[in-house]
Amino acid sequence: MSSPLSSSVIAVTSGEPAGVGPEICLRLVDDARAANFPARIVVLADRSLLAERAAALRWPGTLRDWQPALPAQPGTLDVLHLPLAAAAVPGRLDPVNSHYVLALLDRALAGCQRAEFAAMVTAPVHKGVINDAGIPFSGHTEYLAQRTQTPRVVMMLAGGGLRVALVTTHLPLRDVPAAVTCSAVEESLRILHREMATKYGIAHPRILVAGLNPHAGEGGYLGNEEIEVITPVLGRLRAEGMNLLGPLPADTMFSPPVLERGDCVLAMYHDQGLTALKYASFGHGINVTLGLPIIRTSVDHGTALELAGSGRADPGSLRIAVEQAIEMVARAGRKSGQQALEQQMSG
Predict the structure, then answer these.
(1) Which of 93, 94, 174, 340 stands the most exposed, by the fewest C-beta atoms within 10 Å?
(2) Which residues on neighbouring strands pair with residue 63, listed in sequence order?
């Protein structure tokens, strides 16, 4: 009997062609756990790029042009071909291919928006080379928010037993305090609270909230953001029934006695939250974009140019990102089915 998810398609973008993205996508076929995905997988990439990388690495699988009507086949990677602008050399960035990288994202997103794909999973891109091509780009999270016209999304990384979401993402540190506003903190908490239920099945999540300053401001002696911004927001949302603990000093927030009191963490800026998470889970964590109208997960690492073409890149994070996307699709399907049943019974 086929799985209820067997007709669902997960689109995987192969990312920066000079990085490890193409080869970790190939490894989705020869990874034992990946071979048993209950949903169909299609990799978006230049087919010749994958073929060249496969030959260089003596990859044992088969590449096949994507056709939705064909069933999944063991040892075969389905490829939705999008052409490179120029041949890609492992480890050597070329701004000419930046539009190709974004075309992969646009095609996967369009497929999700018209229900051709159930979710998208992204291999790493290189922000610097995209900007070198004259395209303003600060990351997948911001790009997908802009393309879907979503006013606020939340980046969350999960792994090593942690779930860490961020109020601000890819900003210079000097710009962070001005970006930690009442609306930014409140909207981030509302999205995190809602998506912990929809994507992780935790109806009433316990959220640990970091302060911005050392020692959470030390009562105003080390900064006023906790007093003027974070604490008032937490008070309002607690009055609505949210279970929030904070603002907490970030240097002790990731200790086991504190972590066991929460289901997830909201940090104020990138390195405040992600240093601890990546220490606990690097290579086996994932990135989830909360608040989008689609399901999107990603690897938790970069393009690793120094490993590209070597065959040493670990595909673990990509596999887990695909597994988590499939679980989220299944959970969304169960919720939709339950809502339909309730409407039928009430009618």
Answers:
(1) 174
(2) 77
What confidence tier does 332 reach under pLDDT thresholds 50, 70, 90?
Answer: confident
Looking at the DSSP assignment, which residues form a beta bridge with residue 64?
78
- State the Cα–Cα distance between residues 95 and 83, nearest whole angstrom: 15
> Could you give the C-alpha distances from 270 to 148, 156, 161, 281, 334, in angstroms and in order?
23, 10, 18, 16, 33
Q: How far is CA 199 from CA 155, 187, 208, in A?
A: 14, 17, 18
Q: What are the DSSP calls for 60-90, one per residue?
A: -SEEEE--TTSPP-TTEEEEEE---SS--BT
Pair 321, 299: CB distance under 8 Å: yes
Is the pLDDT score of 344 beyond 70?
Answer: no
Instruction: Quickly list H helices, the chain.
Output: 21-30, 47-57, 98-113, 127-132, 140-147, 176-179, 182-200, 225, 231-239, 250-253, 256-259, 270-281, 316-346
Domains by residue range for the chain, with CATH: 1-150+292-347 (3.40.718.10), 152-291 (3.40.718.10)
Residue 174 is predicted with a pLDDT of 97
pLDDT value of position 343: 47
pTM tops 0.85, yes or no: yes
Burial 287-309 (b: 16+ CB within 10 A, else e): bbbbbbebbbbbbbbebbbebbb
Instruction: Please choose, from the candidates 241, 230, 152, 150, the residue with its C-alpha nearest in 3D space to the C-alpha of residue 197.
Output: 241
Closest CA to 135 of 121, 120, 149, 125: 125
